[in-house]
TrEMBL record:
Transcription regulation is among the record's keywords: yes
Domain called HTH arsR-type: residue spans: 5-105
InterPro entries associated with the record: ArsR-like_HTH, HTH_ArsR_DNA-bd_dom, HTH_MetalResp_TranReg, WH-like_DNA-bd_sf, WH_DNA-bd_sf
Name the record gives this protein: ArsR/SmtB family transcription factor
Keywords attached to this entry: DNA-binding, Transcription, Transcription regulation
Organism annotation: Amycolatopsis halotolerans
Transmembrane segments: none
Domain of life: Bacteria
Length: 108
């Protein structure tokens, strides 16, 4: 049985909260990897591919911040968590935002 974790509705998206969530380089890396995947991904698989080297509690925190900002949707399937970027919803509210922030490679 799957269930979607709580997330804000599109009408309540706050640009300040979204930009705050994206201010952290780790969260940008996670979201960029999801965005470039183009569809739902398993949380554990994505973190391995991103190679962040962060602890599990830190990674869980990053996923929660992204979800609570409205940037991602998380569906639990047993012990797995499937996550995807809410591209259409974010673009509907803030056109061009995700493309501007996530399409370009991270600068070091």
């Amino acid at each position: 049985m799957s269930r979607t974790l709580p997330e804000p509705v599109v009408e309540s998206f706050d640009l300040t909260v979204i930009l705050g969530a994206l201010a952290d380089p780790g969260r940008r890396t996670i979201l960029r990897a999801m965005y470039q995947a183009g569809g739902p991904v398993d949380c554990a698989t994505l973190v391995e591919k991103a190679g962040l080297g962060l602890s599990n509690p830190t990674i869980s925190h990053h996923y929660r911040v992204l979800r609570e900002a409205g940037l991602t949707r998380t569906v639990t399937e047993g012990r797995r968590r499937i996550v995807h970027v809410r591209t259409d919803e974010v673009e509907g509210r803030f056109p061009g935002l995700l493309e501007a922030i996530l399409a370009a490679p991270e600068r070091g």
